[in-house]
Automatic annotation (TrEMBL):
One of its GO terms (molecular function) is purine-specific mismatch base pair DNA N-glycosylase activity. Its cofactor is [4Fe-4S] cluster. Adenine glycosylase active on G-A mispairs. MutY also corrects error-prone DNA synthesis past GO lesions which are due to the oxidatively damaged form of guanine: 7,8-dihydro-8-oxoguanine (8-oxo-dGTP). This is Adenine DNA glycosylase. Its EC number is 3.2.2.31. It is an enzyme of class 3 (hydrolase). It comes from Winogradskyella maritima. Pfam families: HHH, HhH-GPD, NUDIX_4. The keyword DNA repair applies. Belongs to the Nth/MutY family. Binds 1 [4Fe-4S] cluster. NCBIfam families: mutY.
Length: 348
């Protein structure tokens, strides 16, 4: 059985009609690939459409303020992708005269573009036979060839890249790359793969040895950290509040939030003094406080779980440099803050 030919034939019948598959424009392909990193197609598609509508060219994206880009990205997570997207757009416009690099070796130099993304753009937009290896490809190859090398190990990354490179159809690299990714997403799924109606079933080593559920192998992740967040939702007599921009390095860099005090454990209502002692600006106001949520809101990120409480701090008089509560919807914020705002501002 010809693996590549079988995959491509399956794709010709089963592929989804997606907008980035109907173009060779490297800007649109790059945009789709950045959005779909760590994001499933059904979640990423509306974002792709909104970005294309707001920024129809790389020049439009480069000219946009970063806050506008982050606001449009809100809800997708991994915000470094959005910051890198914007930085790369400006680099292409300012340093490359608005022209996308056309080879893998040049594409991989762009900020936020790794091996997978460079391979995808080079093959789909420019026909270069560079093999893509994403989660779907790892799964298909590890199962079909019975490979138990951990996919997130140095040896595994090299092995699977070499195998994908060997298998790619040099006459139609764009079709092969999209076919194997689609096959992994729809046929050789992580859970409940459709093995009974799989065109590769007869020669699939994992199926024939009863190892489908054991492959691919992945090394255990590092331990997830726990953090305890206390957000101070100030409200003054004019219904103004305080919103701060996160300027330090981190996944939420340049997003907005309420003043934050971290604690070593989850605090109860009667322990507000612990927060007062760690937020000196409270001392300048006369206030009453209340705990908005007695149970922690747990926000799970890939590397840490955030146990969060929101404290409503009602100020007598007016806040220094306060902004209207009603204006918060215009700021780019983490999903954790966005969800709170939906509940709190719309509570009436």
């Amino acid at each position: 059985m010809n693996f590549s030919e079988t995959i491509i034939n399956w794709y010709s019948v089963n592929k989804r009609d997606l907008p980035w598959r109907n173009t060779k424009n490297p800007y649109f392909i790059w945009l789709s690939e950045i959005i779909l990193q760590q994001t499933q197609v059904n979640q990423g598609l509306p974002y792709y459409n909104r970005f294309v509508e707001a920024f129809p060219t790389v020049i439009d994206l480069a000219k946009a303020p970063e806050e506008t880009v982050l606001k449009l990205w809100q809800g997708l997570g991994y915000y470094s992708r959005a910051r890198n997207l914007h930085a790369t757009a400006k680099h292409i416009v300012e340093k490359l005269d608005g022209v996308f690099p056309s080879t893998f070796s040049e594409l991989i130099k762009l900020k936020g573009v790794g091996d997978y993304t460079a391979s995808a753009i080079a093959s789909i937009a420019f026909g270069e036979p560079t093999a893509v290896v994403d989660g779907n490809v790892y799964r298909v190859l590890s199962r079909y060839f019975g490979i138990d090398t951990p996919i997130n190990s140095t040896a595994g990354i090299k092995e699977f890249k070499a195998l994908a490179t060997e298998l790619i159809d040099h006459k139609q690299p764009a079709t092969f790359n999209q076919a194997i990714m689609e096959f992994g997403a729809r046929q050789c799924r992580p859970k409940n793969p459709d093995c009974m109606f799989c065109p590769l079933q007869a020669s699939c080593l994992a199926f024939n040895k009863g190892k489908v559920s054991n492959l691919p192998v992945k090394l255990k992740k590092t331990k997830v950290k726990q953090k305890f967040f206390n957000y101070l939702v100030f409200i003054d007599s004019e219904n103004n509040t305080i919103f701060e921009k996160r300027t330090g390095k981190g996944i939420w860099q340049n997003l907005y939030q309420f003043p934050l005090v971290e604690s070593e454990r989850s605090l109860q209502s009667e322990e507000f003094s612990d927060i007062e002692n760690n937020y000196s600006k409270l001392k300048k106001y006369t206030f009453d406080y209340s705990l908005y949520n007695s149970e922690d809101i747990i926000h799970k990120l890939s590397h840490q779980h955030l146990y969060t409480k929101f404290w409503i701090v009602e100020i007598e008089g007016t806040l220094d440099q306060g902004i209207p509560l009603t204006s918060l919807k215009d700021y780019p914020v983490p999903v954790l803050i966005a969800d709170f705002l939906k509940r709190f501002i719309n509570k009436d």
